[in-house]
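Minutes, project check-in

Agenda point 3 was the complex the collaborators sent over. CS summarized: two entities, 555 residues total, and the question is how they sit relative to each other. Sequences were read into the notes so everyone works from the same version.
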Amino acid sequence: MKDLLATVKSNVSIAENIYAITLTLTGPLKNISGGQFVNLSVGEGAMLLRRPLGICKIDGNDLTLCYQVKGKGTKKLTEAKAGDKLKVLLPLGNGFDLNEFNNIAVIGGGVGIFPLIAAIRAYKDKNFYSYIGFRNKAAVCLLEEFEKSKLLTVTTDDGSYGDKGNAVSAYFSDKNRPEADVIIACGPPVMLKVLKEELEKRNFNTPCYVSLEERMGCGIGACLVCTCKKSDGDNARVCKDGPVFNIKNINL
Amino acid sequence: MADLKVKICGVELKNPVIAASGTFGFGREFNEVYDISAIGGISTKGMTLLPRLGNPVPRIAEGYGVILNAVGLQNPGVEHFISNDLKFLKDKGVTVIANVAGNTLEDYGKICAKLDGLVDFVELNISCPNVKAGGMAFGIKPESIKAVTSVAKDSLKSTPLMVKLSPNVESIVLNAQAAQSGGADCISLVNTFTGMVVDIERRKPLIANNTGGVSGAGIKPIAVRMVYEAAHAVNIPVIGMGGIMTGEDAIEFMMCGAGAVQVGTANFADVNAMPRIIEEMNNWLDGHGIKDINEIVDTVKLN
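CS then shared the predicted structure for the full assembly.
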């Protein structure tokens, strides 16, 4: 991993309160797996903590991160303009390892779709079946990234776009649901919790990997700020042991 | 290139920049970014006799120029450190400072005995909550500081004892003197300031533990004042810390009487903070024609 000084190429709103920032790095990004993240500086001096953001797209030397404006840091990040320099520590975390799978069910909710996009882009020859949910029509974004999926179901909580409902219920209620070798998922904690409950209730044997989010300090596994609970009672570090975990091995 | 070597309690450090406890783990993760043998020393993650899982999340929040943390001493236990991490750090050639905490006086005695002779220093963390001392942390009152220091000192036959002082106190001078009279070989300060940050939309503290320790650039002037006061109240070495982000910040602490410094929060803002700070210190010294870092220690003259 390296801390690089990147140049902002663009920073635009792609949905209500959601931005995509593209950073140009000095060289191409190699050996990055979908689901890994970066720790981005948003305003040195006043804001000492970096913001951990999942990698969404990599095109040559360009790295695109998408973020929801949630607090002071992400609000500040919206002010970054083309040509500005930002420090970015990358790549961090483990990412989705899909090498041994061919048929992959993708369940994403809200801003959780971004690391899933990176996973889809990283494995060009696999079959993806995508179920993605948003709060409402205004939150819908980057659908084009899911178009290569063999199947795409889009839901909104209020039915203002696609099917009314959410991504997890869309997956489990799909009568034509294709057989998947693996499920990958990312979304709000409540979505992942329901997903785990549904998998257990239905005795699903399909392995399921989820990407978690947590407030972080160092981002590299040293400070033990971003822990999650493992099913064996021990702690895991979201930044270093994750952010992708087998859903069986963690408590949600 | 100035000479950056310093000597604390007879232990030579290749430079005075030490990683502060809790921000650097046991060095392995930062060693993936740069060779940690470049830094002067590492104060380990705070350790207890038995493993601890720590507090619920979120454990971190931010204020203007500061961060707050409440990790709650999550650690794998001292035995795990001795069998898994100590050799790695020794092989790296960095000065190893074992930061330790306990719930009782006996705990402090036992954990010090386990580490005696194995590490370069033991650093007593005496500002952790939930300890037996009339409901008060060991590190608040001079009497309990002296008591815990002397218990630790009695268990350390060959390893120097560093006592880390809390700034959440009535008198840093009396507490520094209490550590000295309890047998501390050196003191380090300041630990974090207790603080709170509230999410006004949810009307709840951002940190699950409600309060957390405040650190970072914003606390530096208070830390500098306390280090100056403590350094002029005792005749044992002082290790200064609190918001050091640059080489100039480190030099400021040393001019106020610190023989070495610790760097914590800066490691989060800049993963390469410590090698950068060492380089900046060297550049400042070179720029001022100073050949030896020790020449600047305790050179501030009050107005």
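Noted in discussion: Chain A has a mean pLDDT of 96.
Follow-up: revisit at the next meeting once the mutant set is ready.
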